[in-house]
Structures are given as C-alpha cells and as structure tokens.
Please model this.
Amino acid sequence: GEANAWFNLGLSLEKVDREQDALGAYRNARELYQTMGLDDKVQNCNNAIEDLSQPQKPVVSRTRFWGWLRRFWGWLRGWFRR
Model:
C-alpha cells in the first residue's frame, strides 16, 4: 500500500543521492507501518534512516566516473570512425 510506496520512494531517492528526501520518505513509511503494527517493517525503516544519518565517507562519485567513461568512449569511437 501507501507505506510500501513511501519505502520504495526512499530507496529510489537514496540511489540518486537525494538523502534528505529519502529520509523523509522513510520517516513517512515508518509512521504508516507503526500505525499498522508491522514491527519488522518499522525496523527496516529505522535501519535505512540510521544508515543515511551516518556521516558518509568521501568517495569518488561513481556516477561522475561512468559519465566520464561514456563520454570518453564516444569520443574514442568517433575518432576511429574518421
């Protein structure tokens, strides 16, 4: 239902690096799961919120790397087609 939709939205937002929006979605899902008495789902939300709330280690952005690689590959293919 609606709680699952909020939780899945949180997962999607987390994947596109929108942590604050993902936290809000997880909190909405947690509130609905609590209302329904689904303790295991509440715990899943708590785990996701806790993971997002911890300071992130600085890592090279995978998205930036793959974007660079895709552009480089396109340039290289174009260069060989000349």
About this structure: The chain has a mean pLDDT of 90. The CA atoms of residues 20 and 52 lie 9 Å apart.
